[in-house]
Amino acid sequence: MSESRQVTAEKPFDISKQIVVEAWEKVKANQGAAGVDEQSITEFEADLKGNLYRIWNRMSSGSYFPPPVRAVEIPKAGGIGVRVLGVPTVSDRIAQTVVRLYLEPEVEPLFHPDSYGYRPGRSALDAVEACRKRCWSNDWVIDLDIRAFFDSLDHDLVLRTVAKHTDLQWVLLYVRRWLQAPLQTTDGTLVARDRGTPQGSAISPLLANLFLHYAFDRWLTREFPSVSFERYADDAVIHCRSRSQARHVLARLVERMTEVGLELHSGKTRIVYCKDSNRKGSHEHERFTFLGYTFGPRLAAGTHGHFVSFSPAVSDPATKAIRATIREWRLHHRSDSSLSQLADSINAIVTGWVTYYGRFYRSRLYPTLRHINEYLMRWAMQKYKRLHNRTTRARTWLKTIAGRQPDLFVHWRLGLVP
């Protein structure tokens, strides 16, 4: 499997074996759950050479047919409703990654600079930063919500966008098969699909970006060249100079979404006023949430005292999810562990929270992280008899430890000691 791209006379499609190996390495690095065949990454790797050869052989001959995608329900942000993710098998993720590795270099250079989702060298925080700066120079925002985007994609339109950027017939063949692969529910029922692409597959993010490049990015740039936006997959905000401009753009966008088979969620799509110290008016909506951050009027410090800035801070749904995770750790019941072991078990996760949600207006995150100390005090009272049911003593003891080892826990390094 080490050869480079070569023409194989016996096969109708010229697919590089080396690309299959590269696809496997990416799938392994991402890990992920097993699909409908219940085969794990480790089990696949037990016969790696044979399994990779079978994928290459079937894809090269045109005889690769994807198995059903395992449907997994996860709670939506805020705890209202569920989102259905599609989990392909390990083999199918590798096959999808092969196609992505061929197609992505062709389309990536064409994507709009304000498209941030699932793109090399771009992140959600880049999108939040760009949004923050534009809210300072534009008074109004259109906060968009596309109803059931991944479930609603028109297959024919997706294939037409792919066909614009490749002459490889096998790429179109397999993209079509993946779009049409059924979902398998928890009870084994197969659900046929004539629209949509499952969230969770290796190829879906690229297909979504390619679709919205034409359906949204290029259209908005062409029709409203003075309007700026940030988009992360199907999550987007548009910046407008005036309320009347925002109303006009939104009305046109509703029509555009209908043209491409999509629909804006009327209850979640709204026009927002970016209120701050210099914007004296008011509006029904003066806050919006984008990528886990809520933008709104916030007190800020300046050279001439405090003022109100329209800025992002960790959202309420995000803090609720963080607190739920802290509860799930059940630190107070792990009296068999040392304080250092507790730190080792949670520090990586807390670092991730601080890195992401602490980038902007970090102090908004602090009250949530302080909850960790409450569980550590309960842990101390469970572990040491002299501290049993003595909250004040436990707090004093823990504060002494923090004074000696201020770097033990990530939140202690921020000064959030008991």
Query: Which stretches of 5+ consecutive residues score pLDDT under 50?
Result: 1-8
H/E series? HHHEEHHEHHHEEHEEHEEEEHHHHHH
**Number of E-type strands:** 11
**Structural class, from helix and strand content?**
alpha+beta
Largest sheet descriptor: 4 strands, mixed
- Distinct helical segment count: 16
Provide a concise account of the structure shown.
47% of the residues lie in helices and 14% in strands. The chain has 16 helices and eleven strands. Helix 7 (155-163) runs antiparallel to helix 8 (169-180) and helix 7 packs across helix 9.
What does this protein look like?
With 418 residues, the chain is of the alpha+beta class. Helices cover 47% and strands 14% of the residues. The protein contains 16 helices and 11 strands. The protein has helices at residues 17-30, 41-46, 48-61, 90-107, 124-137, 149-152, 155-163, 169-180, 204-223, 243-259, 316-329, 339-357, 366-369, 371-383, 391-404, 410-413, and strands at residues 69-75, 82-87, 140-143, 183-184, 190-191, 228-232, 235-240, 270-273, 288-290, 293-302, 305-314. The strands form 3 sheets. It has a 4-stranded mixed β-sheet, with no helix packed on it. The chain is flat, with a radius of gyration of 25 Å.
